[in-house]
Design goal:
365 residues; alpha/beta; four-stranded parallel β-sheet; 10 helices; 10 strands; 33% helix; 11% strand; elongated
Length: 365
C-alpha cells in the first residue's frame, strides 16, 4: 500500500528587524534610518501574509460515497475501497434483494452517491423501473458468462413464493466470476475518483490495487479448498432445494438435481415425486438447502437424506432492524462456512474429505 502523501507546513515568516536604534524625531530622520538599515524588511512585504504553498495531493480529499444495491456488491465495495469509501448498503438485514423494494425516498437519496453498484442480471428487480443516474451505475455482472435459468416457483425466507425466469444470479459462488466482479468494482472505484488537483490518482490506484491483490489471494485460497472438497463429488447426483447453486455446480463439476422444495411446507404431489426419483439415482443423498428446513419438512422426508445448509450468499441473514452493513456481511467467511457444513455431511456419509483443506466453521448462517 502506498504511504500517505507527505504534507508540508506553512513557511515561517521573517520576524526580526535590526538596527533602528535612533529615536524618530522627524519624518526625514525616520526615512533615513529605514533606508540605512540593511536588514529592515520591505514595508509592502512585511505587511502581507506569506502565501500558503500549493496543496499537496492526497489519495482522496474525502471518502467516495458508494450506494450498494445488494449485499454481495456492498461487500466488494467495502473490501476494495477500505477507508477511502463510505458504503451505504441499502438492502436491510434479512431482506431478499430479488423481491425487496426501496422506498421512493431511498431511491432519491441514491442520487447523491458518487458511485452506484449493483449486481444486475435481474437480481435487484426494482432497478428496471427506478430512476437512477445511469452514468454512475455499474452492473457488476455485465459481460460475465451467465447461466440461463428455467422458470421455477419457490419460496425462501420472508419473501414469499416467487419465480425466476431470467439468469441465475449467484455468480459469486463461482470464484472466477467473483474475482471478475471484484476487478470490475475496482475499476469503477478508480473511475469515480474526482478529477481534481487535490486527488492523487496514482496513490488511490495503488491502495485499491493492494486491496484487490489481498482479496485475490483469499479467493484463490477458497477456490483451492472448494476444489479439493467438491470435485470428488462430481458425477454423483446431489439434491438442491431451489435454483441457487448453478454457478457452484458449474465451477466444481457438480451434478445438481434441482428440486422444488420449500423449507417451511412439506413436499407433496409433483415435488415429492421428483424427490423420490432423485433418491433412486444417488448413493450420496446430500440435499443442499438455502436455509434450515422446518422440523415438519424434515420429518416428512426419508431419514436417509443428509441435509446441509449451503448459504447462497445473496442476502444479509442478520435479523436485526435497520440497513445493511457492508462490514458485517463477510461473503468469503460464509463461503468457507458452506464448505465446513458440506464436509461434515460427507463425513457422516462415510466418505473422507481431505483434512488438510478444512476451513474454519464460524460462518453458520
Amino acid at each position: 500500500m502506498s504511504p500517505e502523501p507527505r504534507r508540508t507546513g506553512l513557511r515561517s515568516r521573517a520576524q526580526s528587524v535590526h538596527g533602528l536604534a535612533l529615536s524618530l524625531v522627524a519624518l526625514g530622520l525616520a526615512v533615513l534610518a529605514a533606508c540605512s538599515s540593511p536588514s529592515a524588511p520591505d514595508d509592502a512585504t512585511s505587511s502581507r501574509a506569506t502565501p500558503e504553498p500549493a496543496a499537496v495531493p492526497t489519495a482522496l480529499a474525502e471518502p467516495l460515497e458508494i450506494g450498494a444495491l445488494s449485499p454481495p456488491v456492498a461487500w466488494l465495495a467495502h473490501r476494495l475501497g477500505g477507508d477511502d469509501v463510505v458504503v451505504d448498503a441499502i438492502t436491510p438485514p434479512g431482506a431478499d434483494p430479488r423481491v425487496w423494494q426501496p422506498t421512493p425516498e431511498a431511491v432519491v437519496a441514491l442520487h447523491d452517491a458518487d458511485l452506484l453498484l449493483a449486481h444486475g442480471a435481474g437480481f435487484e428487480a426494482w432497478l428496471d423501473t427506478a430512476s437512477l443516474p445511469r452514468s454512475r451505475l455499474v452492473l457488476t455482472s455485465t459481460g460475465l458468462d451467465l447461466l440461463a435459468a428455467e422458470t421455477m416457483r419457490h419460496s425462501h425466507g420472508d419473501g414469499g413464493e416467487h419465480s425466476h425466469t431470467a439468469s441465475h444470479v449467484e455468480t459469486w459462488l463461482d470464484p472466477d466470476l467473483l474475482l471478475a466482479q471484484a476487478e470490475r468494482v475496482a475499476e469503477a472505484l478508480l473511475a469515480a475518483a474526482p478529477d481534481s488537483p487535490s486527488v492523487d490518482h496514482e496513490a488511490f490506484g495503488a491502495r485499491v490495487e493492494s486491496r484487490l491483490a489481498t482479496l485475490r489471494t483469499e479467493i484463490d485460497a477458497y477456490r483451492s479448498a472448494a476444489h479439493s472438497l467438491l470435485t470428488p463429488l462430481g458425477g454423483q447426483p446431489l439434491g438442491a432445494a431451489g435454483p441457487h447453486y448453478a454457478y457452484l455446480g458449474r465451477s466444481f463439476g457438480l451434478e445438481l438435481v434441482v428440486l422444488e422444495l420449500s423449507a417451511t411446507t412439506p413436499a407433496d404431489g409433483h415435488a415429492r415425486h421428483h424427490l423420490d426419483e432423485w433418491l433412486a439415482t444417488t448413493a450420496t443423498p446430500l440435499l443442499f438447502w438455502p436455509e434450515t428446513p422446518s422440523d415438519a419438512v424434515r420429518a416428512a422426508l426419508p431419514d436417509t437424506i443428509h441435509h446441509v445448509i449451503v448459504d447462497p450468499l445473496s442476502r444479509d441473514e442478520r435479523r436485526d432492524s435497520g440497513r445493511g452493513d457492508a462490514e458485517a456481511f463477510d461473503l468469503l467467511r460464509r463461503a468457507h462456512g458452506n464448505l465446513d457444513r458440506i464436509r461434515d455431511q460427507i463425513a457422516a456419509l462415510g466418505q473422507s474429505p481431505t483434512p488438510e483443506n478444512s476451513t474454519s466453521s464460524n460462518a453458520a448462517p
